[in-house]
Amino acid sequence: MRRIASGFAALATVTALAACSPQGAAGTAATEYLVFYAEGRQADALARIGEAGGTAVLKEPKLGYVIARAAGRSFAETVGADPAVAGVSADRRIGHAPSAATVRGPATGPAAGAFPDASAFTESSDGDPLSPRQWDMMMIGADRAHAKAPGSDKVLVGVIDTGIDGGHPDIAANFNRELSRNFVTDKPEDENGETLDGPCEADGCKDPVDRDDDGHGTHVASTIASPANGIGVIGVAPRVQLVNIRAGQDSGFFFLKPSLDALTYAGDIGVDVVNMSYYVDPWLFNCRDHPSDSEKERLEQRAIITGMQRALDYARGKGVTLISALGNGSTDLGRPAADKVSPGYPRGEERQRKVDNSCLNVPAESDGVISVSALGPSGRKAIYSDYGVEQTDVAAPGGDTLDGKDSSATRSILAAAPEEVLRAKGRIDRDGKPRGTDVVRDCTRRPCSYYQYLDGTSMAAPHATGVAAILISRFGKPGPGGVTLAPDTVERYLFETATDQPCPTPRAYVYKVYGESTTHLCEGGADHNGFYGRGIVNAYGAATFQP
User: Fold this and answer.
1) Is 356 a member of any domain?
2) Are 138 and 53 members of one domain?
3) Which of 256, 305, 357, 463 has the fewest CB atoms in 10 Å of its CB?
4) Has residue 284 been placed in a domain?
5) Euclidean distance between CA atoms 444 and 438, whole angstroms
6) Could you tell me the CATH number of the domain that includes residue 266?
7) How far apart are CA 68 and CA 231, in angstroms?
C-alpha cells in the first residue's frame, strides 16, 4: 500500500453529482458537477465553467472543488479539456458495500495443519448470551481484552456506511445521536426507472441519523462496539462511542459527494478512526489512462482517484485514522488482470477490460489507508478476500462459510441486525421468529434483539477499527472530540501488536470447491505478506501493549 500522503494533484478533477430538476438555457434538465481544480487554479476553473455555459453554485476550498450546474451533454467534455481540469463524470453511482462471498459448496486446501485449529474458538469467558458464538472475538483475543481495555467513551469511531440502527438494544448505549449525520438523500429509482432505494420513508427522502434500511452499517458498528450489557454480542471495544456518518444509499451504493462530506465531517468534529467497508466505483479498478476507455471515462476515473484522495488526506490531517475493507474479488491486487464489472452503472454498461497494477481500487489502495483482508475461522485467508503484498496491511476475521468440511453460517461473523430490515427481507416471520440459521434472536431482555451472520472484508475491517479504538483509548491525549492520537502512531501500534502469520505451505494455496479449484499465491515473510499483511490484528495485544 502506498503510504506517502499526497496533496492536491497537479491536474484538477471533475466528477458529476446527480441530475437536478432545474432547466438549463436550452430547456434540458441541468446536472450538478463536482469540479476539482488544481492547487491555485480555482479562478481558472471558475472561468472555464462559465465559458462552458455552467454556473458555480458552491465552493469547497477544504478539498479544492466547485459545484457547478449546467445543461447539455457537452459541458463535461468542454470543461475537461481545460488544463486546470482533469476529469468529468456524468450522473453515476460510484460505490457500493462489498457483499459476502457467493461461491457455493465446501472449500478445502492441501495444507492441512497450516492454520490454527478452529476448535480453540468455541467458548468465551464474556457474559453476553451470544458471546460463545463469536469465534472472531476469540481469534483476536478481544474476549480477554475486554477486562483490561474495553475502550474509552472519549473515543469517537465514525462508521461511514449505510447508516446505524441507533435504537438497536445492543448498540443504543454507545450510539452518539448528537454527532451523527446523514449525508445521503434516498433515490427511489435510478435514471432508467429501475428500483434503487425503494420508497422514501422520511420527508424529503432523508432518513434520520439512527436508521439503517440496509443493515450493512449496523453489522459493522456492532462488531466495533456492541456494549457488554448482558444482551446479544460484545464488540471489540465495547465502551467507545459510535458516530453514524452515513454516505451509503439504502441500496448499498455510495456516491462521491456524500463520501467526501463524510470524511470532511469526520475530520472537523474530531473523530478518531473511521471504518470504510465499501469501495468507490462505477469502476472496480480506476485507471487514469486506460487505452480502451474513452476520454470521458478516463476523466471520470481520475476524478474518483483525486477526489477521494483529497478527502482522505484532509481527514487524516485532522487526526482521523482511516481503515478500509480490502475487497471481495478473490484477486491479487498487485497483479489484477481483468475487470469484468465496470462501469457498474447504469446497469448493462459493464464490459471486460484488461487492467494492471497502475489501476487502483479506491479507497483500499488510496494513500494513508489501512486495508484489511478477511480470514475464516481456521485462520486461513477467506476464499473471497482480495490480497497482495503492497495492498494488505493487516488481516482480521471476516468469516468464510466454506472454511470447513461443510458449509455453515456459524463460520461467518455474528453481529447486530435491524429488525425492520430482517422483516422487510422475510428473514423473520410475523411472530418475530428467525427463518434460517443465519439469523439469531436474543430475548434475554425485552424487546428482543436480532443478529445476523455475514461474510466479507466488510466484516473484517471493523475488527481492525475496534483494535485501533482500543489503542487510541489507551494512548490518546486530550484533543478535538475528546482524545486524539496521530494516525501514524495508531498505524505503527496496530502493526506492532498484530500477530505475525506466515504464508501457508505451500505458498500457492489451493481452494477446492465441488471438484473445482482456484489457487492464490501468498508472497512475503512472516512479518509482512500478501495474505496477512503485518499480521492478524490482536485486541489483547493492544490492551497490554507497552510502547
Assistant:
1) yes
2) no
3) 357
4) yes
5) 19
6) 3.40.50.200
7) 49
Q: What DSSP string runs through 463-502?
A: HHHHHHHHHHHHH-EEETTEEE--HHHHHHHHHHHSBP-P
One-letter amino acid for residue 216 of the chain: H
Cell numbers given for 219: 453489522
The C-alpha angle 489, 379, 437, rounded to 5 degrees, equals 115
Count of beta carbons in the 10 Å neighbourhood of residue 535: 23
Q: Is the peptide bond before 169 cis (omega within 30 degrees of 0)?
A: no
* Paired strand residues for 253: 96
Q: Looking at 52-154, list the stretches that DSSP marks H as alpha helix, in order from N- to C-terminal side.
A: 75-80, 135-139, 142-145
Cis peptide before 363 (omega within 30 of 0): yes
470 close to 145: Cβ distance less than 8 angstroms: yes
Q: Residue 511 is placed in which grid cell?
A: 481452494
218/131 Cα distance (integer angstroms): 18
Q: Is the pTM of this model over 0.85?
A: yes
Write the CATH number for 43.
3.30.70
pLDDT tens, residue order, the chain (547 aa) = 332 333 333 333 444 433 333 444 344 568 888 888 888 899 988 999 898 998 898 898 998 888 888 887 788 788 888 888 866 664 444 445 554 443 333 333 333 333 333 333 333 445 799 999 999 999 999 999 999 999 999 999 999 999 999 999 999 999 999 999 999 988 888 777 888 888 888 888 999 999 999 999 999 999 999 999 999 999 999 999 999 999 998 888 888 889 999 999 999 999 999 999 998 768 889 899 999 999 888 888 898 899 999 999 999 999 999 999 999 999 999 999 999 989 877 767 889 999 999 999 999 999 999 999 999 999 999 999 999 999 999 999 999 999 987 778 999 999 999 999 999 999 999 999 999 999 999 999 889 999 999 999 999 999 999 999 999 999 999 998 899 999 999 999 999 999 999 999 999 999 987 778 999 999 999 999 999 999 999 999 999 999 9
What's the rounded Cα separation, in Å, for the pair 186 and 201?
9
Tell me whether residue 7 is in a domain.
no
Cell of 190: 435510478
Beta bridge partners of 96: 253, 279
**Total structural domains in the chain?**
2
C-alpha cell at 199: 420508497
Per-residue DSSP letter, 120: G
- Identify whether residues 68 and 130 lie together within a single domain: no
Asked if residue 2 is part of any domain, the answer here is no
Q: How many residues does the chain have?
A: 547
CA distance 207 to 211: 6
List, in order, residues 6 or more apart from 140 with CB less than 8 Å away: 236, 396, 397, 463, 467, 536, 537, 538, 539, 540
Do residues 182 and 68 share a domain? no
Residues ≥6 apart with Cβ < 8 Å to 203: none
- 67 and 199 belong to one structural domain: no
Q: Are the beta carbons of 248 and 217 closer than 8 angstroms?
A: yes
Going along 288-345, which residue ranges are E strands?
A: 321-325, 338-342
Single out the residue of 463, 476, 475, 513 nearest to residue 138, CA to CA: 463
Are 327 and 386 contacting, i.e. CB atoms less than 8 angstroms apart?
A: yes
**Hey, what amino acid is at 205?**
C
Would you state the cell numbers that stand for residue 132, as one nine-digit string?
Answer: 460463545
